[in-house]
Amino acid sequence: MRAALSAASLALLLSACASTGGGITGSAPPRVPKRTSGVPAVRQPTRTAPRDATVQMIAGLEGVIGANQGQLTRLFGQPRLDVWEGDARKLQFSGTACVLDVFLYPSTSSKEPHATYVEARRSSDGQDVDRVACVGALKK
């Protein structure tokens, strides 16, 4: 019984795959664009005028948000990391309580980047912590 059922199922599946030859007539196969050379065309990036970054507004971060690199160094000491990515900058400050990443972006009114966003996490396991509490713990 089981063998007959399996054979019938197999026959049904194979019949679904069989072609009836009654495909759409008169249509051409899809056109594949020809390559003129072995190298794909490279699209040049477009430059746009810088715009002001969106500023994170959280009560308790007033001394950090809007600060430049010098002000942040005076507030927290030398950063553990100082990373540039294009015109953006990330300063990382750390202590036993937490790690604070401060993101600085230039604005249209100033070429010098200013802090617009912060992230905070525990030093031990990387879990998110309260940003304001981390700022308080890291202040000199």
From TrEMBL:
Domain of life of the organism encoding this protein: Bacteria
Signal peptide, first to last residue: 1-18
Keywords: Signal
Ranges for region Disordered: 24-44
PROSITE patterns per UniProt: PROKAR_LIPOPROTEIN
Name of the protein: Lipoprotein
Organism of provenance: Novosphingobium barchaimii LL02
Lineage: Bacteria, Pseudomonadati, Pseudomonadota, Alphaproteobacteria, Sphingomonadales
